[in-house]
Design brief:
The protein is an alpha+beta fold. The chain is built from 18 helices and 29 strands. Strand 13 and strand 14 form a beta hairpin. Helix 1 packs across helix 2, helix 6 crosses helix 14 and helix 11 packs across helix 12. The protein binds one RNA strand through strand 2, helix 4, strand 5, strand 7 and strand 8.
RNA sequence: GCCGAGAUAGCUCAGUCGGUAGAGCACAUGCAUGGUAAGCAUGAGGUCACGGGUUCGAUUCCCGUUCUCGGCUCCA
């Protein structure tokens, strides 16, 4: 982030935070009995939480917006004032939430209030010069929210809004929201017949339809091929494990809330796995390991089940059963620098292959409460830092933000609409090797504790698929498209030839369908176009005559006729190049 | 789980101020044999989410339940 970017961001936040004040003012004017709480700027705009006896309706929102326009038109100046604690208590005597915040402010810190017109709010600021600066805003929605985000506290009414320096930027933002709605993977998933979820058999559990299955298979095939190329081996482990395993791993102590109830098998409790790592460790422990065996890189497309509250389930992005593209790297201290660098380089290669080029790293270091020797933490963090630096990745440091068992790098990828998604995690673990007493024999003939790194590259196939659908708006590149080409006959007379063309292409590994239905050409073209098939191969009398296909591309229209073999070469090389 | 809004055909939605429901797309059948984004006609398809109440009568009104969607992480 440049200095200029920082400054712009601050200005936008100031504008939005000021807009939140104007909204609170409008609400207090219309509903004097509403209690104000807090109203910060957020990534997409701003919100303000109110304690009010009934929920705000769409009509209320329209009224509030109108009232806000009045306040903006009046161009009331924002006035900063520093007050004593005593005076602030007087000003906010009718606002219990403000008093609560006030009482928590440390002694000695200046207490500031901001006024515009008759409205006054306890606020650190800063604000824009006057309310007239907030011309381009819009109220978006109402939602419930808990005081301080804690469900034990009072439920408040939260009004979301957004504001921009200019109307043009606001309009652009609204268009972007519409575009995002059009790309919603839940809508495209149904329209393109990719997957479904139904509460009929259980919410948050995904059915992959044939077309979604084709895409998943293309992803998995590429994934496996690349893992082998990069020195990984692939494991398969069970869906269930005995309670003793999860006791040793600590999951039953720390993670039980996210695990499903046990089932009884021959008098022992078994749990459905929420993670794959204990099984990989069990594989490690089947023999005595030498430093000469390390590093071990073991990957698995492992399906895990985790309990998620019903209210948070969301299409493919938040589910209860999902397949992690998991891997565990087990190595010696001398190897970690290289291993981390390699895993990061590999991750970047994979993201690029799937069409994501804007990637940012988030590095989280040692928290207060942590297990493992400090020297190991230091070495691990150094390895992570070296790797991001060598990959020339932008990164943010989250000092103390790591898990208790190790530091990590998360990668966030930006999609075609500029939205950031947290996908890859590269996570050190100083806990499990201890708990399972993992070791290897070093060159010195002594037992040593190996380093262990968890890595989920795409994250989960379900979530990755959801993001991929939205990134491409359903128009997958040819190598991923469920149907890569459809042969369309002009009339029934070309059915046999169409089938022949399809079988030639299938021989070459192309996913091809035949549409020889008794429909008009235009109708079949439209349908293929709507289904976002990359290539339409029209065959009529002329093509039969010349043993050719008339190629139409999804993106650039009619490309003219060419011999079948020529088209086959063309699409096969396109697929090989991951286009 | 909590707050709010919803639930009508496979999908998107209309409608009934209480008298057992409609459209477009999709599907089926027939006609049309068509050269680059929707040919024509006919038909089938609904416990109006589920349970209870009020009523002569409830898909419609009331209560409850289930599920879906938007939030519940952004902190003066």
């Amino acid at each position: 982030m440049t200095e200029k970017g920082d400054k712009e961001l601050l200005e936008l936040e100031t504008l939005r935070h000021s807009a939140a004040h104007v909204m609170a003012d409008a609400v207090k004017r219309l509903f004097p009995e509403a209690k104000i709480t807090i109203g910060p700027a957020i990534e997409e705009g701003f919100y303000y939480d109110f304690d009010f006896k009934r929920p705000f309706t769409q009509e209320d929102l329209a009224k509030i917006e109108k009232e806000m326009h009045g306040i903006v038109a009046a161009a009331l100046p924002f006035v900063r004032e520093e007050v004593t604690r005593e005076k602030a208590r007087g000003i906010f005597k009718a606002e219990p939430y403000k008093i609560e915040i006030l009482e928590e402010l440390p002694e000695g810190e200046p207490i500031t209030i901001y006024r515009h017109g008759d409205f006054v709010d306890l606020c650190r600021g800063p604000h824009v010069k006057d309310t007239g600066k907030i011309s381009a805003f819009k109220l978006m929605s109402v939602a419930g929210a808990y005081w301080r985000g804690d469900e034990k506290n009072a439920q408040l009414q939260r009004i979301y809004g957004t504001a921009f320096p200019s109307q043009a930027e606001l309009d652009e933002h609204l268009v972007r929201l519409e575009e995002a709605a059009k790309r919603d993977h839940r809508k495209l998933g149904r329209d393109l017949d990719l997957y479904s979820t139904m509460d009929e058999y259980g919410g948050g559990l995904v059915l992959w339809h044939p077309k979604g299955g084709r895409i998943r298979d293309a992803i998995e095939t590429f994934w496996k091929e690349q893992h082998y190329k990069n020195g990984y081996d692939i494991l398969y482990t069970p869906h269930l494990g005995r309670a003793t395993l999860w006791e040793t791993s600590g999951h039953l102590d720390f993670y039980r809330d996210s695990m499903y109830s046990p089932m009884d098998i021959d008098g022992n409790d078994y749990f459905i796995k929420p993670m794959n790592c204990p099984f990989h460790i069990m594989v490690y422990k089947t023999q005595m390991r030498s430093y000469r065996d390390l590093p071990l890189r073991w990957a698995e497309l492992g399906t895990v089940y985790r309990y998620e509250k019903s209210g948070v389930l969301h299409g493919l992005l938040r589910v209860r059963g999902f397949t992690q593209d998991d891997a565990h790297i087990i190595c010696t201290p001398e190897q970690i620098d290289n291993e981390i660098r390699e895993v990061l380089r590999f991750s970047m290669f994979m993201w690029k292959s799937f069409g994501f080029t804007d990637i940012k790293a988030y590095l989280a270091t040692r928290p207060e409460k942590a297990v493992g020797e400090p020297e190991r933490w230091d070495q691990a963090i150094a390895a992570l830092k070296n790797a991001v630096t060598e990959e020339k990745l932008d990164y943010e440091l989250d000092e103390g933000g790591g898990a208790f068992y190790g530091p990590k790098i998360d990668l966030k990828v930006r999609d075609a609409l500029g939205r950031e998604w947290q996908m890859t995690t590269i996570q050190f673990d100083f806990n499990l090797p201890e708990r399972f007493d993992m070791n290897y024999i070093g060159a010195d003939g002594q037992r040593h504790r190996p380093y262990m790194v968890h890595r989920a590259l795409l994250g989960s196939l379900e979530r990755f698929f959801g993001v991929l659908i939205e990134h491409y708006a359903g128009a997958f590149p040819t190598w991923l498209a469920p149907v890569q080409a459809v042969v369309i006959s002009v009339s029934e007379a070309q059915s046999t030839y169409a089938a022949k063309v399809a079988s030639i292409l299938r021989e070459r590994g192309v996913r091809v369908d035949v549409d020889d239905r008794n429909e008009k050409l235009g109708f079949k073209i439209r349908e293929a176009q709507v289904k976002k098939v990359p290539y339409m191969l029209v065959v009529g009398g002329k093509e039969v005559e010349s043993q050719a296909v008339a190629v139409r591309s999804r993106a650039s229209g009619d490309l003219g006729a060419m011999p079948v073999a020529e088209f086959a070469d063309r699409i096969v090389s396109e697929i090989a190049e991951k286009k």
